[in-house]
């Protein structure tokens, strides 16, 4: 009996020990997660060689127009000792969240550089809605044609000057922005009555061009419904789930619809299955509800159905670890 009691005592001690080890491990995980966040957001990119005495070529657009690039100020460099010399004052953040953490500028177009080896490129930073969002798709008024070839979708198209300009950032840029995978993509939607809605996807990413920019994402949340996955029904998901689908354009058919081309039918470059219930690059109808041979509007099927074309859409990304001071929801889009 005494032996039995001792055994019970030993077992319960072991169980308590195991629990404390588990708790400690969790604390450790949370700690390293916080360190990762700090490293990411307080990171200050090393300056270019002080020998550089010319203005970086990236400050000028292909058409020669000057862009509103931010220069670093002497107070912004958290933890940096060496101040740049003249001619190397331009700091390119990895994305809009880094820029937001560093300078909290207003929403607008800024140059970023997600990878060190990349040339900086221009993006729209949404510094409202909690701030720090790098925008990679925008529909507003239908003046930009989204029915384009592979090369246009790869390199990007549209206008990058005014707040309401429409664009597709370009799959190659989107790939470099999303390649880390630990991010949150927010999809903002607005109908023709001004009602807003949104969908969030964790760890949204695309593969490289060799794999045709295949779409991958994890957890969905939000109020507009998980249209990328094809809604809730298994049958619908079989033909419309876009997770794992390659990107298609009118001249590159990579969909699973054997009898035709989803991109041609839907007049858009997008990830298609057979074909979709979500296509934010579709034809822009100014009427909301539309009639056509194919459901080719700007569609988020789980919110408005396939035969309603949305008025505003925005696709934007920031790190999953970004600490949002106000909380993002159906904010300004
Ligand atoms: Ca096909």
UniProtKB/TrEMBL annotation:
GO terms for molecular function: extracellular matrix structural constituent; protein-macromolecule adaptor activity. GO terms for biological process: blood coagulation, common pathway; fibrinolysis; platelet aggregation; positive regulation of heterotypic cell-cell adhesion. InterPro entries: FIB_ANG-like, Fibrinogen-like_C, Fibrinogen_a/b/g_C_1, Fibrinogen_a/b/g_C_dom, Fibrinogen_CS. Residues 51-81 are annotated as: Disordered. Residues 1-15 form the signal peptide. Its main location: secreted. Residues 63-75 have a biased composition (Polar residues). It is found in: Secreted. GO terms for cellular component: fibrinogen complex. Residues 87-321 form the Fibrinogen C-terminal domain. It comes from the Eukaryota. Keywords: Disulfide bond, Glycoprotein, Secreted, Signal. NCBIfam families: GGGWT_bact. This is Fibrinogen C-terminal domain-containing protein. The lineage of its organism: Eukaryota, Metazoa, Chordata, Craniata, Vertebrata.
């Amino acid at each position: 009996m005494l032996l039995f009691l001792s055994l019970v005592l030993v077992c319960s001690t072991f169980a308590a020990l195991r629990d404390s080890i588990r708790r400690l491990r969790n604390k450790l995980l949370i700690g390293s997660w916080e360190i990762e966040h700090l490293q990411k957001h307080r990171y200050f990119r090393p300056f270019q060689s002080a020998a550089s005495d010319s203005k970086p070529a990236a400050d000028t657009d292909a058409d020669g127009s000057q862009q509103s690039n931010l220069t670093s100020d002497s107070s912004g460099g958290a933890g940096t000792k060496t101040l740049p010399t003249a001619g190397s004052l331009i700091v390119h953040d990895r994305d809009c969240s880094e820029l937001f953490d560093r300078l909290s500028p207003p929403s607008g177009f800024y140059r970023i550089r997600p990878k060190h080896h990349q040339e900086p490129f221009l993006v729209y930073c949404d510094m409202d809605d909690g701030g720090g969002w790098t925008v990679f798709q925008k529909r507003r008024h239908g003046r930009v044609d989204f029915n384009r070839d592979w090369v246009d979708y790869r390199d990007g198209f549209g206008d990058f000057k005014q707040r309401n300009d429409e664009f597709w950032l370009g799959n190659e840029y989107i790939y470099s922005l999303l390649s880390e995978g630990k991010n949150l993509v927010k999809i903002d939607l607005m109908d023709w009555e001004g009602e807003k809605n949104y969908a969030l996807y964790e760890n949204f990413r695309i593969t490289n061009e060799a794999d045709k920019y295949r779409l991958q994402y994890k957890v969905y949340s939000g109020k507009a419904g998980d249209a990328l996955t094809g809604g809730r029904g298994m049958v619908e998901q079989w033909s419309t789930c876009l997770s794992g689908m390659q990107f298609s354009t009118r001249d590159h058919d990579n969909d699973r619809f054997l009898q035709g081309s989803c991109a041609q039918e839907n007049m858009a470059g997008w990830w298609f299955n057979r074909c979709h219930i979500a296509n934010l690059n579709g034809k822009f109808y100014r009427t909301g509800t539309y009639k056509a041979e194919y459901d080719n509007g700007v569609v988020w099927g789980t919110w408005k159905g396939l035969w309603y074309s949305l008025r505003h859409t925005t696709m934007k990304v920031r790190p999953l670890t970004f600490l949002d001071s106000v909380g993002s929801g159906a904010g300004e889009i």
